[in-house]
Amino acid sequence: MRNTMVLVRTDNFQKASIALADLVRYGGMQIRGDPRIIPPALSDWAFEKISGEKPRRRFRAHVIAQIDLPPAKAIGRLMDIHPPAHILVIPPDTEVWEELIRLWSTFEKLKGFHPPKRTKAEELRKEREREEREWELEEF
User: More exposed terminus of the chain, fewer Cβ within 10 Å: N or C?
Assistant: First the structure.
């Protein structure tokens, strides 16, 4: 299966890790595999190819990760949250995606990133939502 990718561009790798954690926690996305660090020049090239314009700002940290959502849904969820980074969604049917996958094994893994664990409050909320859905189904 071809996973959608997200390109995270920010000032440092700590902010990149926080942005990825926000995608998981608030965006409901799942990170597939380990996020990877990519060279700034490749990041700028990918940005230019996907957005159609040159990057206006230089960033120090460039991270790529594969996610479990289709591109349209990922973009919609990104618009709902405001992670501390510039994030670009890369669809699997693009030249950029093909090039990044080809080079994937050459990129260094992002150290220190661990997907956030669900808190007790989140677990309780999920349980309540599940019970409400079951209750609605029983009413019919």
Answer: C
Q: Which single residue is written with the structure tokens 């992670």?
A: 83
Predicted confidence (pLDDT) per residue in 27-47, tens digit = 888 899 999 999 999 999 999
Where does the pLDDT of residue 122 fall: very low under 50, low under 70, confident under 90, or very high at 90 and above?
A: low
Q: How far is CA 13 from CA 79, 96, 111, 132, in A?
A: 22, 22, 9, 40
DSSP per-residue letters across 40-93:
HHHHHHHHHHHHSS--SS--SEEEEEEESS-HHHHHHHHHHS--SSEEEEE-TT
Q: From CA 87, how far away is CA 74, in angstroms rounded?
A: 11
What tokens does 42 get?
A: 């490749």
Cβ burial of 28 (10 Å; 0-12, 13-18, 19+) is middle
